[in-house]
Structures are given as C-alpha cells and as structure tokens.
Write a structure and sequence with these properties.
This protein is elongated. The longest helix is centred in the C-terminal third of the chain and has 17 residues, at about 125-140. The termini are far apart. The chain is built from nine helices and no strands. By secondary structure, the chain is an all-alpha fold.
Length: about 140
C-alpha cells in the first residue's frame, strides 16, 4: 500500500506556522528578487527561518552583493540587529519599515580607503593605526 500525504496534525500545523512570513506578497517579492548564490549562502550559513528571512529581506532591499552578504552573516548582523530599545513593532506595521527605522540609529563606516583585506578579522588597534597612517599620508600630500 502506497503512503499518501501526511495528514494535518497539530504538530504539522505548528511547523507550518513557522513559515507564515513566507506567505506574504512582500516577502515573495524579496525572495524572487535575489540570485541563487545569495539563497545558497543564506541557506548554508544561517540556522533559523527568522534569520534567513532577515538576510533575504535585507539583501533584496539593499541590493547586497554576495560578498557584502557574507560579511554581514559573518559579523552576525542578525543577532545584533534590534538591540536598540524602541516601539517600532507597535507603531510601524511593515517589517521592512521597522528594519529601516532601526538602521537609522546605527553607524556604518566605509573604510575601503585603508586597504584592509577583511575588516571583520582586524582588531581595533590595527584599524586605528591604518586610519592614522592614511590621515598622515593625506596631510603630507
């Protein structure tokens, strides 16, 4: 006798609820707007559904390259995101808008000019020395 599809059980229903954010039109648009390599890296480098949704949405909204995405995953942006006390979940209905509001309170620095290969692996002293060298070089010119 051939097995048929699993019946609807309380356990299966609760598992399906974990993926409820995936059913929104907004998320589907984000999901289909990023490339296969982005999906692959998110899938193998993240553990939870919420974390995957976070990186898919962020990648789609900010047009992240694969390298930038990998850097954000390595820096554990998902775990650090949302640490600022706020009431955005109560006052802003769109998840994307909530994330954008949180980003306003974060500082980002573009340090490409100091020629460090992988900024995530550099200690603070090394970074400071590189910035000071670059400033001195600019003043001397």
């Amino acid at each position: 006798m051939k097995k048929s599809a699993k019946s609807v059980t309380k356990k299966n229903t609760s598992k399906a609820k974990e993926f409820s954010p995936l059913s929104t039109d907004e998320f589907r648009k984000d999901f289909y707007s990023i490339g296969f390599t982005h999906h692959y890296e998110i899938l193998i480098k993240t553990k939870t559904v919420d974390e995957r949704i976070f990186y898919i949405t962020k990648t789609a909204n900010e047009f992240l390259s694969v390298d930038t995405l990998l850097r954000l995953i390595r820096s554990e942006l998902y775990k650090k995101n949302g640490k600022v006390l706020n009431n955005f979940s109560k006052t802003i209905t769109s998840k994307t808008r909530q994330e954008q509001a949180l980003q306003i309170f974060k500082d980002e620095y573009l340090l490409d000019f100091i020629n460090i290969e992988d900024p995530d692996l550099v200690d603070e002293r090394e970074l400071e020395d590189a910035i000071v060298r670059n400033i001195k070089k600019s003043y001397c010119q």
